[in-house]
Write a structure and sequence with these properties.
The protein is mostly helical. It has a single domain, classed as Winged helix-like DNA-binding domain superfamily/Winged helix DNA-binding domain (Arc Repressor Mutant, subunit A, Orthogonal Bundle), CATH 1.10.10.10. About 65% of the residues lie in helices and about 10% in strands. Strands 1-3-2 form a three-stranded antiparallel β-sheet. Strand 2 and strand 3 form a beta hairpin. Helix 3 packs across helix 4. The longest helix is centred in the last third of the chain and has 22 residues. The model has no long low-confidence stretch (mean pLDDT about 90).
Amino acid sequence: MSKELNLVLKKYDLFAAQWTVLYCVHQHGEMTLTHIWKYLNVEAPTVTRTVNRLEVLGWLTTQEGQDRREKVVRLSTVAAAKFPDIEASIIRFENEFLQGLSNDEQELLKELLRKLDKEGKM
């Protein structure tokens, strides 16, 4: 699934891991790096590298937080403008991906994913 998602994101010069960070920041607004890696349950160095790369590419902007060691991240104006188009592409991808499942199977999948998330395994 990640491989196919990367193909969808390729036209935006993004990868799935980068999209996850962008989506997280979009959903929560301004976030610190610490909040991002804790929310996504990803190692801090991985998030730092991803955020740095997205900043270089113009997707994110960062500024110093209250503590000089803290970095606050937000979507750039360019990213905010492009976000609806990318999100629509992702939704189309997800819908195509789920077409092979019945409605009952789709609901079961959603329920199982929610259960895994609540148990901290995702």
